[in-house]
Amino acid sequence: MTALIEVTDLSKSFGGVEAVTDLSLDVNVGEILGLIGPNGAGKSTVFNLINGVVAPDTGRIVFDGDDITGKEPYIVARHGIARAYQIVQPLTGLSVLENCTVGACFGRENLPLSKAREIAREVVATVGLAERMDTLAGSLTTAGKKRLELARALSARPRLLLLDEVLAGLNPTEVEAMIEIVQDVRKAGVAILMIEHVMRAIMRLSDRIVVLNLGSKLAEGAPQIVANDPKVIEAYLGDPKMLATAEGAV
Amino acid sequence: MAQILASVIDGVLIGSIYGLAAMGLTLIWGVMNVINLSHGAVIVLGMFALYYLSSVLGLNAYAALPIVIVIGFGVGVALYWIAVHRVIGRPPLMSLLSTFAVNMVLIGLGTAFWSTSPYNVPVSLPSVSWQGYTYTGTHIVAAALAVVIAGLLYLLLYRTRVGKAVRAVAANRAAAEVCGIPTTQVLALSFGVGVTLAFASGMLIATLFPFTVLSGGAYQLKSFVVTVLGGLGNPAGALLGGLFLGLIEGVATPFMPVSWMPMIEFVLFVFVLIAFPSGIFSFTRK
Amino acid sequence: MIIVRLNTIRPFPWLILIVTVSFALVPWWTDNVSLRENLILAALDITLASSLNLMLGYAGYVNFGNIVMFGLGGYFGVYLVSVWHWPILVATLVGGIAVSVIAYVFGLGILRLRGAYFALATIGVNEAVSVFVTNFEPWGGASGLYLSLDAYAPLGGPGHTLWIVYFLMVAVMGLSLALSYAIRRSKFGLGLLAIGENEDAAATLGVPTRIYKAMVYSVSAFLPAIAGGLYFFKSGIIEPTGAFDLTTSIETIVMVMLGGQGTVAGPVIGAFLYEELRGYLLTAQAFSHFQLVIAGLLLLVIVLFAPSGLMGFVHQKLPFTRRWLE
Predict the structure, then answer these.
(1) How far apart are CA C160 and CA C210, in angstroms?
(2) pTM of the model
């Protein structure tokens, strides 16, 4: 398995608070790597560091052979990394199609407008928003906005997709639907790094899991191994329900 | 050397008024994320309020201060409901344009009523001599009053329930609402206080220098510079920033023509915004 | 709003052409000089408003100092004609390019400031440039530059010049509308709209925000600069107060907001309506002192109750117009 993105010894402090400390992880081509950990563990910061919103204090990020450490977000996007934010950021005054067209236009392939629109159309259909193609993004439901967030990231046809809690706020049916979409994305050859709190989902989806706690890597490995790791259980305050859910899902 | 020291001290005295004006601006900015582009215009209103109370109605200039404060608060709350309330949740562009529109209306009305002739409020106080240089009494009293008002603001914000509500809304409006704080009224009050500070600073400036309807522009620019020096939403920083600006002006005045001042302040403003986004005097890092 | 239908004729470019040609031909055919003088101001307003709309309506950045481009373009134009005796066409073109380049470089720096801070900075830009030019001797300092009558000789004398300048100004107006339309339908325009909606999200999606912002700032300077060169060439004199009049900046903003920011037709309609209003106010005795007040009230009402301006209102009430009246 070749590593698509290699993160080495990444550290970041915010005014005295060490958000991320000496973190190293890899995501391999075609794999889904789950990133879990208690709140405040630094997961979103890792995403911010990877896609350039924030520059790391130390460490390197190498994507497909290119050093993208500390590069600006739009340059990272051009390399083929797309991100779906935890708090959705729809371009509210534009339609669903236009939102995705932006993604397709300015992503890795840097397409002209007409080609981008075609791709956007396909992607919108893939996530099931076809009937809402011309609706203004601002008037979608929460679930719709989440799908748009994902669709927009996919429109850029990235090699690596950063998913930040795409399942948050969805009811069980919507969660199921989203899980299928994520699995389809992986089948299409896109590597995925996903942050999630919905344990059964992430245990099902991930090939490997990295557990973060207080900014450092606590454990890494296959889902069932990580779920039974005593350090991990302790980090989640030994919540037996957490453990039972994880075991039940595997 | 003593010449420079004298003008520096004078600059710091005036700087306290700049700080007071900027505190109004930064309070509004910090609490509701609105940049009040009518700030200069309300400073001018404060100047004319003093003119009417003092020269027309014959009140002693300093005795008029409480009345000016009350008027300022009323104007501020009214402006909030007219121009700001509806644009609160909307993109910042909208509040910029609405306060800018208010500015246009106020300046336009002002020019129509008072034209652009200079007005003056004569205030005479004994001067203070020190080290062979005289400091005008009015400058000293104005600085002292500015500090007193700033102190009152501090008491309001940090020692009263109302102040606590203001700080809560500034930190997180939704959470404050959920705690039972009537946030809209708090916003109106904050805007009112912000405008009051501007009014008060206008009044104090009027005791020192002659003014016209168009004088507000220069003080608005100074307020912006001070606000970014001190960090947004940071009244203490604004006061420090004001003193700092006064100091710079004091140092620079012997050496350069007054007309260059706005340009220097503008350059300083842009520089600080780019280099120190959270202000030089702010004690919290963003 | 952009609604995309791939297989329809686009009527709007034809509208632009019709309007431009009418502007050019009507005063000429009727040989109506006073109409021409009115229309040249209208053409100027439309040019300024359309160009401002690129920054304000598309990218969402308010440029309170938009008049600076006009004034600088005027200075370049008049300077090159009066001192270096260049022909007017070349002079205004060079002026336009010079101002655009300055705007691009300056823009890269000043557009680091986000939304509101940028707007604040532009308020100061006007002041700063005005002060600078007032003290800049090669450009005549506080008294400015003026053109002697023989500057008009190459064009066939003052009478002919007025007509030629008029046609040029109309051409510039047509160009500004065409440019506005072309950008809106382009990838560049989509990127700008994304920036205007949510700059951080746009950056994550790969929009090169800093460069695009500087580019639109530069493009929005080009035609106003040329228009400035033409206008002050026609006036024969340029000095700092008239060239950098803040009131005009403000009125341009009102025009764009009134007509509907973010659309191509909006600035045109806004410019027309505002011109009518101003003309009425100036002649009606009661209101002549209140120009600024009326403009301010108008802006306030628009921002509070109709932020999408007239075009937004029309698009809402008559959805079919979205397609052909952009």
Answers:
(1) 45
(2) 0.85
B45 closest CA partner among B196, B187, B166:
B196
The lowest-confidence range among B11-25, B250-264, C51-65, C207-221 is: B250-264
Across the interface, whether the CB atoms of C190 and A105 are under 8 A apart is answered yes
* CATH class in words for B2-123+138-275: mainly alpha
Number of folded domains that form chain C: 1
Going from N- to C-terminal start, the domains of chain B cover 2-123+138-275
* CB–CB contact C197 A92 (8 Å): yes
- Residues in CB range of A213: below 8 A, 6 or more apart: A37, A38, A41, A235
Identify the weakest region by mean pLDDT among A167-171, B62-66, B124-128: B124-128
> Does any domain span residue C4?
no
The per-residue pLDDT for range B82-130, each reduced to its tens digit, is 999 999 888 778 888 899 999 989 988 888 888 878 888 877 777 777 7
Class of domain A1-70+185-250: alpha beta
Which residues in C lie closer than 8 A to residue A72 (C-beta atoms)? 203
Residue showing tokens 């046609």: C167
d(CA B11, CA B244): 9
Cα distances from A22 to residues A42, A56, A216, B129, C188, in angstroms, run 12, 11, 7, 63, 40
- Nearest Cβ partner of C299 from B86, B91, B97? B97
Q: Which domain holds residue C117?
A: 12-324
Q: In CATH, what number is assigned to the domain containing residue C34?
A: 1.10.3470
Instruction: Report DSSP state, residue B248.
Output: H
Q: Does residue C83 lie within any of the structural domains? A: yes
Of B25, B213, B38, the C-alpha closest to B116 is B213
